[in-house]
Amino acid sequence: MRVVSGIQPTGNLHLGNYLGAIRQWIAMQDAMGTEDTCLFFLADLHALTQPVVAAELAANTIEMAATLLACGIDPDRSILFNQARVPAHAELAWLLGGTARIGWLNRMTQWKDKAGKNREGQSVGLFTYPVLQAADVLAYQATHVPVGDDQKQHLELARDIAAKFNTDFGVELFTQPEPFISAAAPRIMSLRDGTAKMSKSDPSDASRINLIDDDDLIAQKLRKARTDSDPLPETMKELEGRPEATNLVTIYAALAGRAPADVLVEFAGQGFGQFKPVLADMAVSVLCPIRTRLTELLGDRGAVAATLESGANRARALAAPTLLAAQQAIGL
Ligand code: ADP
Ligand code: NA
């Protein structure tokens, strides 16, 4: 198996990012055999589809890499790098731009959602983003790509581009990547509003637990999390209609690596006055070691940059034969 996955370098990662995304990467890494490879990249080229503040992009890239390392990405087992340092991504994206059709891109729901009514005012990059995504995975002959619901259409497009390129140029070059279905990632909701997702763009800092929050702040935010006054029931079914309560049980379960139903078996009958301190202890026990490593790593940003550079060297070597073969197929 060769698994390729990217994440945009944004600042201020939170518990939702950790439980919903980063931890899935750690699980993939841990599931790989000796013949398998995971490539994880910071999608700094994709970040260009939106307005960029140069100093922030650079800092976010290092901070995101440090966060991934702190969460358990092992640069000896996985290849961790940033996209911009492997020119094959951009080069192959250009080559595939000859294969992808405008009609295909016009059908992408993310493009339609993000561009809204102002299509003419969007960057070209926002429109062609899915072609770069195709290059991201095809450059490495990825066999599997982890995808959430929102990315399924883009993976389909990558498969279509791979197939059309192979047909058009009469080659068996690109592997068609399959979606990698991992254990369902939990969706973590805001601590202030159980129906909104926990997000860095929420103006209320109390709505989320940031990976850099200290132990006291974590406990305080969980203590103040909005809930109802009913005790925890015995089954998940009985939690329906109680989004805040459901969210706290979901968070506990995800942190503990247990099923929510199993958590209810243990805590049924308890009110949030009892459950929240237990949840806070659980959160601190998971997040404190991550924050400690993250702080250490951020104390030596040069070392993080060096880790990314050595990942990029390995990634360049893996992508080179495919890029060359693609050029030759086209007649370049
Ligand atoms: P944000 O919503 O904070 O801007 P991003 O959109 O940058 O987060 O998402 C980065 C990754 O983290 C994505 O894989 C996304 O699915 C995941 N993620 C973000 N928020 C949550 C959440 N509240 N629960 C679960 N996963 C999340
Ligand atoms: Na977002």
Automatic annotation (TrEMBL):
A Pfam family it matches: tRNA-synt_1b
Recorded superkingdom: Bacteria
Binding site for ATP: Q8, P9, T10, G16, N17, G148, D149, D150, I188, K197, M198, S199, K200, S201
E.C. no: 6.1.1.2
Predominant location category: cytoplasm
GO BP annotation list: tryptophanyl-tRNA aminoacylation
Catalytic activity: tRNA(Trp) + L-tryptophan + ATP = L-tryptophyl-tRNA(Trp) + AMP + diphosphate + H(+)
Enzyme type, top EC level: ligase
MF terms in GO: ATP binding; tryptophan-tRNA ligase activity
Cited PROSITE patterns: AA_TRNA_LIGASE_I
InterPro entries: aa-tRNA-synth_I_CS, aa-tRNA-synth_Ic, Rossmann-like_a/b/a_fold, Trp-tRNA-ligase, Trp-tRNA-ligase_bac-type, Trp-tRNA_synthetase
Keywords: Aminoacyl-tRNA synthetase, ATP-binding, Cytoplasm, Ligase, Nucleotide-binding, Protein biosynthesis
Presence of keyword Aminoacyl-tRNA synthetase: yes
Assigned protein family: Belongs to the class-I aminoacyl-tRNA synthetase family.
Subunit structure: Homodimer.
Protein name: Tryptophan--tRNA ligase
Source organism: Sphingomonas aerophila
Highest classification ranks of the organism: Bacteria, Pseudomonadati, Pseudomonadota, Alphaproteobacteria, Sphingomonadales
Name of the gene this protein is made from: trpS
